[in-house]
Specification:
CATH superfamily of the largest domain: FAD/NAD(P)-binding domain
Mean pLDDT: 95
Strand order of the largest sheet: 3-2-1-4-18
Distance between the termini: 43 Å
Shape: globular
CATH architecture of the largest domain: 3-Layer(bba) Sandwich
Bound molecules: flavin-adenine dinucleotide
Number of domains: 3
Strand content: 15-25%
Structural class: alpha/beta
Helix content: 25-40%
Length: 404
């Protein structure tokens, strides 16, 4: 990677860092890398973004660092993410440990609900600030989507294991298998802790709302435990996001003839474009401008769609074309169209909700109506990305620090 690192111009105003949701200090760490000071670079990256070892693997780099490298103008951009993988991977796996860095929150007890990227990042920063941190998660093990969603072939479980060890070695209490709302009430946590941060993700799958939907399989539970599902020979995945790509790539690995049906076109797919390319390389086949209208025994009825440019020049809309119904045989329909957070455990707590059923937030992502509850990550924004979850956790943690 040294040749790649030597191409970096170490810009004074680094566009790569500016475009990154956590503003990774690329030039500073690149310079350290060139000098062979990998551990120092690893520590800086970890303090800025404790999930650096993961985001460097799963980010859509074209959207963030790579896509904003100044060398895009005339040459090939610098693949900083590969250098970051090397630095941060080595830092985490070579036995990184957490240290108290200040006593600002000494004697303060903080509960984190959700041990995904938000919970991990917040646990690191709050522990470093001196707090007594407890992590709660409905799943038995730490990692959130990193462990229970993204498949092993894209992100090895060893990374979650390393975070689990880091957290355990620091003495941070991890309460796995505890579902807030069912096993412990939010009001109880709020009463016994100085602050509660909810990073409970977005796990409720959106419904297609079509007849026969009960015959379909939701992609998230499938990804959580693929071996538990008997998919049959031919599988159709509906959706065009990261979840759809992971679902189709997992199905194809189970030996299924796998298709992705998407209601818009390739450019509209929210998935990382690299993921779509990988899915094709795996043998997944795609059909665009297709909307499912009914799930039947042995297959799905689809209707053709088209993109229409409104006359006023507004945003392109996708229109379903009547009279184009056609039956496509398959053994399993996997649904991966979207997810939203489950705000059920906020009910009856005094949290103020808006007209769409989302919590109203004050500055710093504190929940309106509750004195000491904050939200972050997908639980606050809906499904986004790991790096955005970390950036969101930073906002909430800074607000907690300011408050306490
Ligand atoms: C299949 C899939 C693939 C993805 N691929 C990518 C990718 O390639 N790149 C990328 O950047 N992003 C990707 N994402 C998105 C990314 O993983 C999320 O944006 C990120 O994990 C959000 O972090 P979080 O901490 O907010 O939530 P999560 O990771 O969802 O963690 C939330 C945790 O809260 C726990 N929880 C929920 N409710 C309760 C409760 N009541 N009590 C206790 N615990 C609870 C859950 O068990 C879970 O462990 C993907 C998402 C999915 C689903």
């Amino acid at each position: 990677m040294n040749t790649e690192a030597s191409r970096c111009l170490l810009c004074k105003i680094p566009k790569c860092s500016q475009a990154c949701p956590v503003h990774t200090p690329v030039p500073e760490c690149m310079a350290l890398y060139r000098e062979g000071k990998l551990e120092e670079a690893g520590r800086i990256l970890f303090e800025n973004n404790p999930l650096s070892a993961v985001t460097s693997q799963v980010c859509d780099w074209k959207q963030f660092c790579l896509g904003h490298c100044v060398l895009n103008i005339k040459q090939v951009p610098v693949r900083w993410y590969e250098i970051e993988q090397e630095i941060s991977g080595a830092y985490l796996l070579s036995g990184a440990s957490l240290e108290r860095k200040s006593t600002v929150l000494e004697g303060r007890r903080i509960a984190l609900v959700g041990a995904g990227p938000v919970g991990i990042a917040a646990a690191v920063w709050l522990y470093q600030a001196g707090a007594d941190v407890s992590l709660y998660d409905a799943n038995p093990r730490l990692g959130g989507v990193l462990r229970y969603g993204i498949p092993e072939f894209r992100l090895a479980k060893k990374w979650c294991d390393a975070y689990e060890k880091l957290i355990a070695d620091a003495g941070i209490a991890f309460h796995g298998g505890v579902q807030v709302g069912r096993d412990v009430k939010l009001s109880a946590l709020s009463a016994s802790f100085d602050a509660v941060l909810l990073g409970a993700g977005a796990e409720v799958p959106a419904r297609l709302g079509i007849p026969g939907e009960e015959r379909a399989v939701q992609a998230l539970p499938f990804l959580k435990n693929p071996e538990a599902f008997e998919l049959g020979r031919k599988v159709i995945v509906v959706g065009g996001g990261n979840v759809a790509m992971d679902a189709c790539r997992t199905a194809v690995r189970q030996g299924c003839e796998t298709w992705v049906y998407y209601r818009k076109t390739y450019e509209n797919m929210p998935a990382n474009p690299a993921e779509v390319i990988e899915a094709r390389a795996d043998g997944v086949q795609f059909k665009v401008f297709q909307a499912p209208v009914q799930v039947q025994e042995g297959g799905v009825v689809f209707r053709d769609c088209e993109n229409v440019q409104p006359e006023d020049g507004g945003r392109v809309v996708t229109r379903i074309i009547d009279g184009t119904d056609h039956f496509v045989a398959c053994d399993t329909l996997l649904v991966a169209i979207s997810e939203k957070p489950d705000f059920g455990f906020l009910a009856g707590t005094g949290a103020v909700m808006d007209q769409w059923g989302w919590p109203v937030l004050n500055e710093g992502q504190q929940v309106e109506g509750l004195t000491n509850v904050w939200v972050a990550g997908d639980f606050c924004s809906g499904p986004r990305t790991v790096v955005e979850a970390v950036a969101s956790a930073r906002i909430a943690v800074d607000s907690i620090l300011a408050r306490l």
